[in-house]
Write a structure and sequence with these properties.
Blueprint (H helix, E strand, L loop, with lengths): L20 E4 L4 E5 L13 E3 L5 E2 L2 E2 L5 E3 L4 H7 L6 E3 L2 E2 L7 E3 L13 E5 L6 H13 L2 H5 L1 E3 L2 E3 L2 H5 L2 E4 L2 H44 L5 H6 L6 H19 L24 E4 H4 E6 L12 E4 L4 E2 L2 E2 L5 E3 L16 E4 L1 E2 L7 E3 L8 E2 L3 E6 L5 H9 L1 H10 L1 E3 L2 E3 L2 H5 L2 E4 L2 H43 L6
Parallel strand pairs: 16-23
Antiparallel strand pairs: 1-13, 2-10, 3-6, 4-5, 7-9, 7-10, 8-12, 11-12, 14-27, 15-24, 16-19, 17-18, 20-22, 20-24, 21-26, 25-26
Length: 472
């Protein structure tokens, strides 16, 4: 009786049909070779050559090739791919090790370095059958189990690949199995595409909600029913007066410097009761986080980092920690309502913003984040909505400074940000309206994620049945 489980070094099979055999891959390959190591160019001239990035979702992405401008005919003939050739990523991170793509195009393309070419004996092993089998092996961890591991990458040599054990049936049955896999995958892909389409629509909807929120469109009826609320201009005056008074008490005899008033000459007129204000005017503290080295010891104080901010929310996974007696505490401990702004990240992610709502507690924040404490009457969630809205993203693009691979918006620029400020009570109403809408989208998003995981499990099940002889 053959067993079906992942061992440390190999995979075993059980209950295969009697007509099936198990054969080492090397016996079924016409060719297994490394790619062409030659100077490549981005200029689209000459013959395209594959790279690791060329492999995308099991297919070839011709937008991510480079080019060989001059090559000898002998080398060209040796390294040109043929239909049915499989490229195998044998040196990569653990996540991407063993990715494959099958070549089915009529275009000319050369086999490049860092990818192994697997060319089957097509009277014994149908290329697509091997392609799907390798995809299954990757899913169940076979490649990781037998790979050699180094810092940030793992590798498989040709000997290990050739020694992979392959469940084999007749070539005609292999083709029938592939046809059934693709039939079921086609249905599954349609369902997955629909789920992803809904997910993308929800993201656009949330963007539209934030835009409407900071434009005051979500509270139009509320304003009609509450015409006599205190205008935000009075709130701003009170904040500035209280700040000055507090500063003079804490710094007797020293001259107080007023926050720079905003230049509103070229700004659009706001709704009745709203006023333009800068973060500098509205904040009582703007502070960078800790640059101290964190650790994995969960007995310490968790430190929020830029990866913990996702789509305006805090994700409390993959936390790092500082000791409870860290010398920057309690000054760098967060308080409920603190706004967190991601000052350094990739250009598309810099400026991510959220609000710390008191959990986990105690909690601190890292140096790539800026903590902003708002004055009484200023709702941090509303400010976060504005920065995450299309208006905030547009502002970030105008003030960001580019560095190698990263973008930065420092605390000085953040304090100069102008926001349209509603009255205190309207801020709260806007927050309620946004959170009401977002709670619905979160439920739908959770259902989508559940179904995407279910689809992935079904994909896994289809492949498992295929290579156990039970799919057809």
């Amino acid at each position: 009786m053959k067993r079906h489980l992942i061992a440390t070094k190999e995979i075993h099979f059980e209950d295969l049909p009697k007509s099936w055999t198990i054969t080492e891959l090397g016996e079924l390959l016409e060719r297994i070779t490394n790619g062409l190591n030659i100077k490549q160019n981005r200029e689209p001239k000459g013959i395209p050559v594959t790279r690791i990035e060329t492999i995308s979702k099991g297919e070839f992405d011709f937008e991510r090739v480079q080019y060989v401008h001059d090559i000898e005919d002998e080398k060209k003939d040796k390294y040109l791919l043929k239909q049915g050739d499989i490229l195998f990523s044998h040196i990569n991170s653990d996540l991407h090790l063993g990715k494959t793509a099958i070549f089915s195009s009529n275009r000319q393309i050369l086999h490049g370095v860092n990818l192994l070419l697997l060319r089957t004996k097509q009277d014994l092993l149908f290329p697509k059958y091997l392609h799907y089998l390798l995809n299954y092996y990757r899913r169940i961890g076979v490649f990781i189990a037998i790979a050699q591991h180094a810092v940030n990458q793992s590798s498989l040599n040709q000997a290990k690949i050739k020694s992979l054990r392959i469940p084999l049936t007749s070539i005609n049955e292999q083709k029938s199995i592939v046809a059934e896999i693709e039939k079921q995958f086609s249905r599954l892909d349609g369902a997955i595409s629909n789920l992803k389409r809904v997910k993308a629509n929800l993201k656009r909807y949330k963007t539209a909600v934030l835009k409407a929120a900071v434009e005051g469109k979500l509270t139009e009826e509320w304003r009609k029913a509450n015409p006599d609320v205190e205008p935000a201009s009075e709130l701003l005056k009170r904040i500035l007066a209280e700040r000055k008074k507090k500063w003079e008490v804490e710094h007797p005899g020293k001259k107080y410097k007023e926050p720079t008033p905003p230049d509103t000459s070229n700004l659009p007129e706001l709704l009745k009761g709203w006023v333009w204000a800068t973060i500098e005017q509205l904040a009582t503290k703007v502070q960078y986080g800790s640059s101290a080295k964190t650790n994995e010891h969960s007995s310490g104080v968790p430190v929020l980092r830029m990866g913990n901010i996702f789509e305006g929310q805090l994700k409390l996974d993959d936390l790092k920690y500082l000791p409870k007696n860290h010398p920057e505490f309690p000054d760098l401990l967060l308080e409920k309502g603190d706004l967190l702004f991601n000052r350094t990240n990739s250009p598309e992610l810099v400026g991510k913003t959220t609000v710390y709502m008191g959990k986990p507690k105690p909690c601190s924040f890292a140096s790539y984040l800026i903590r902003v404490k708002m004055a009484d009457g200023i709702r941090s969630n509303f400010v976060s909505f504005y920065i995450n809205s299309v208006y905030g993203r547009k502002w970030i693009k105008t003030v960001v400074s580019q560095q190698v691979g990263q973008a930065n918006v420092n605390g000085t620029k953040l304090q100069a940000l102008l926001i349209p400020l509603p009255p205190d009570t309207e801020q709260q109403k806007i927050i309620e309206e946004v959170e009401s809408r977002f709670s619905v989208t979160e439920e739908i998003e959770a259902a989508i994620e559940t179904n995407l995981k279910r689809a992935d499990r079904l994909c896994h099940s289809i492949l498992k049945k295929a290579f156990s002889g039970k799919l057809i």
